[in-house]
Amino acid sequence: LAPVVEESLAPVVEESLAPVVEESLAPVVEEIPFNQEMLKTDAVGQMNWVVQVGSFSNKDNAEKLNQKVKKAGFRSFVNPITQNNKIMHQVCLGPEYDETDAKNLLKEIKNKMKLDGIVKKYP
């Protein structure tokens, strides 16, 4: 028989992990959500016209177009509506008090961004 040799195991070394460092991040600018009450004014009443430049079932797609339009200098918002038991997210410019102003806005967005749209009463 061969002699019994006890194996010597290497000692377990626990690794020391570097401490977790929390980074200081810049504050997040919170966009104020659109609210129907924002459209009302005491002097003139409620604004009546918007230019709809898109309607999406996917909210993220609507938000992407909305941000693109805003970066181009237009006042816009995403208007969620229920249509055929589905929530749709309309991207609208405005609102405007006057239909003529809304029509001019439609011409401007066509020229500047090559986006087509429709002038609609709002809300």
Quick summary of this structure?
This protein is of the alpha+beta class and 123 residues long. The protein is built from two helices and six strands, in the order E-E-E-H-E-E-H-E. The protein has a domain at 52-121: Sporulation related repeat (Alpha-Beta Plaits, 2-Layer Sandwich).
What's the structural blueprint in terms of helices and strands?
Layout: E1 40-41, E2 45-46, E3 49-56, H1 59-71, E4 76-83, E5 86-96, H2 99-113, E6 118-121
Antiparallel strand pairs: 1-2, 3-5, 3-6, 4-5
Characterization of this structure:
By secondary structure, this protein is of the alpha+beta class. The protein contains 2 helices and 6 strands; from the N terminus they run βββαββαβ. The strands form 2 sheets. A 4-stranded antiparallel beta sheet has the order 4-5-3-6, covered by helices on one side. The longest helix has 15 residues. The protein is rod-shaped, with a radius of gyration of 29 Å.
| CATH homologous superfamily (4th level) name of the domain at 52-121 | Sporulation related repeat
Helical run tally: 2
Number of strands: 6
The level 1 CATH classification of the domain at 52-121 is Alpha Beta
Output the CATH topology of the domain at 52-121: Alpha-Beta Plaits
**Main sheet overview:** 4 strands, antiparallel
Helical percent range? 10-25%
The global form is rod-shaped
> In what order do the strands lie side by side in the largest sheet?
4-5-3-6
Distance between the first and last residues' Cα: 96 Å
Instruction: Point out poorly predicted stretches.
Output: none
Rg, rounded, reads 29 Å
**Second-tier CATH architecture of the domain at 52-121:** 2-Layer Sandwich
- Write down the oligomeric state: single chain
